[in-house]
Specification:
There is one protein chain. The chain is an alpha/beta fold. The chain has 2 domains: 69 residues; 362 residues, Pectate Lyase C-like (3 Solenoid). The chain is 21% helix and 27% strand. The strands form 5 sheets. It has a 20-stranded parallel beta sheet that branches. A hairpin with a 2-residue loop joins strand 6 and strand 7. Helix 1 runs antiparallel to helix 6. The longest helix is centred in the last third of the chain and has 35 residues. This is Right handed beta helix domain-containing protein.
């Protein structure tokens, strides 16, 4: 009989103890509980300093501390940065020996990566522009991985200096991956320099680059700038660059593939540029640009039934998706010099452009399989920087100046123009329903980000109703446990008395043990 009542009490206790979970689950917000095995492990991780990474604090010594470690630790050393920490550096971190690495412990992605924040003083338009420098005489095989670089330009204009990240030089085998570089004070988010033309075999992959610069006149900045031969640039996302998304300065033997370049609120001059005569004298031999996606502006207005185009709040476009030849960019600045011997294959264009592709002053190029996908529009008008003696062609998908393109193999569909000079002088329309409906990665990532933010906020705390429900459940649970304890104790005492034992006499039990 009593055991039956005891079972009912236990069942009631279980139900009552489950009440908080049920109350919480029925409410809008739920707190995600991780499977931690140690009591207060989260609190301990937040309070105690890590011993597996170099701390950001004290900030007034962080630049010297990190550079001392790189300078004194020799080849193969990994400088471990702490996840989620910001390092306010007042001078570049300098790689000092081959096979060194700078990375965040655990190789996280997203905002869990450590951030190097460019913080040097700016005086009279000059100051620190670079966070990481990897061009030492013994910098073969160095690695920059899983960190963020904040160039801190903000609303200021560019200052004289180098890129957020400067690698290359007379070195080979360097790797940059899973790095987010953005808002450079200088001219590029990431630059791989040619050195004395010995730079070779670098890999730039899986990075998220940008925003870089603004579209105000001469306030631009590149996303990725490549001047090192035989470099692989692949699987990178370049968001909102303003000068060139990926600029290839000749760099013979370089492969640029499977990258995505898009604009959000700034017009981009060129998606992928093969226009620079210097420093390789226009030599693009065995340089291949293939399977990239370049996304122009899209309508930001609400789509109405039956409408194909809408307005864009910032009037943004990509002026030239892929530009080939110096005249497309610089006009006659380089006279009769040309870009030569490159290959451009199977790239996709979507969104609003001035021109998807433009070719002028080029020789021995192969251009095949490049197509428009999704919704596209080609819009633009002569701007104030278009010279009066240039006949700027109407905006259209593919344009070529055949008088200045020789020995080349171009796909069908190019429109012949008589003047392909300085095409970046065009401007987007000033408003109007000209932008196609569609979207770029920022739209989907914004949605994801919004979901993530919502999830993050719910995991940081429960609603008032959920907290009240849990409190009530805990009180009821404690009461049930107290009741169960009372009845169990009463049953034990009655049983002891029935057996003739004195339940209060502990010495009797102890005495038996001493006989």
């Amino acid at each position: 009989m009593f055991s039956h009542r005891l079972g009912l009490l236990c069942l009631a206790t279980t139900v009552l103890l489950a009440t908080p979970a049920r109350l919480a689950s029925g409410l809008h917000h739920r707190r995600h509980v991780t499977h931690e095995t140690s009591l207060f492990s989260r609190l301990t991780a937040d309070i105690l300093p890590r011993d597996d990474c170099e701390p950001a604090d004290p900030q007034d010594t962080v630049t010297d501390r990190l550079n001392t470690l790189l300078n004194s630790s020799g080849a193969g050393y990994t400088l471990p940065l702490c996840p989620g920490e910001s390092y306010y550096i007042t001078a570049p971190l300098q790689f000092a020996a081959h096979d060194q690495e700078i990375s965040t412990v655990g190789y996280p992605e997203g905002d869990d990566r450590a951030t190097l924040v460019v913080s040097g003083v700016i005086t009279n338009g000059t100051g620190q522009t670079t966070a990481v420098m990897g061009q030492c005489v013994d910098c073969d095989g160095i690695k920059l991985r899983h960190i963020q670089i904040n160039g801190t330009r903000g609303n200021n204009g560019p200052i004289s200096g180098d890129a957020n990240i400067e690698m290359g030089g007379d070195n080979s085998g360097q790797l940059i991956e899973f790095v987010h570089s953005f808002d450079p004070r200088g001219w590029s988010c990431l630059h791989i320099a040619e050195g004395t033309f010995k730079c070779n075999n670098q890999t730039i992959q899986n990075n998220d680059i940008g925003p870089c610069g603004t579209d105000a006149f001469q306030q631009w900045a590149d996303g990725i700038s490549i001047s090192c031969m035989n470099t692989v640039v692949r699987n990178n996302s370049v968001n909102n660059p303003t000068d060139g998304g990926i600029v290839v300065f000749g760099a013979p033997g370089t492969l640029v593939e499977n990258n995505t370049i898009w604009v959000v609120n700034n017009t981009l001059l060129g998606g992928i540029n093969m226009v620079d005569y210097d420093p390789w004298s226009g030599n693009y031999t065995n340089t291949i640009v293939r399977n990239n996606v370049i996304m122009g502006g899209f309508a930001t207005s609400d789509e109405e039934p039956g409408e194909k185009d809408g307005t864009n709040a910032e009037d943004v476009i990509v002026k030239i998706g892929i530009a080939i030849g110096p005249r497309t960019w610089f006009g006659d600045q380089y006279y009769n010099n040309v870009s030569s011997s490159g290959t451009v294959l199977n790239n996709n264009f979507t969104g609003a452009f001035g021109y998807a592709m433009a070719i002028s002053s080029a020789r021995n190029f192969t251009v095949q399989g490049n197509i428009l996908v999704g919704n596209t529009s080609f819009i633009g008008r002569r701007g104030p920087n278009c010279t009066s003696d240039d006949t700027t062609p109407n905006a259209t998908a593919f344009v070529i100046d055949p008088a200045l393109v020789t020995d080349s193999n171009e796909q069908s569909g190019f429109i012949t123009v008589s003047d392909g000079d300085s095409l970046t002088c065009i401007l987007p329309p000033d408003g109007g329903d000209y932008w196609p409906f569609g979207g770029n990665p920022s739209n989907s990532s914004s949605a994801s980000s919004g979901q993530s933010t919502s999830s993050s906020s719910t995991s940081s705390g429960l609603s008032g109703g959920a907290k009240a429900g849990i409190a009530i459940g805990v009180i009821l649970g404690v009461a049930a446990i107290a009741a169960a304890t009372y009845f169990v104790r009463r049953w034990a005492l009655e049983r002891a008395r029935a057996q003739g034992a004195d339940p209060w006499r502990r010495s009797g039990y102890l005495g038996k043990g001493m006989q």
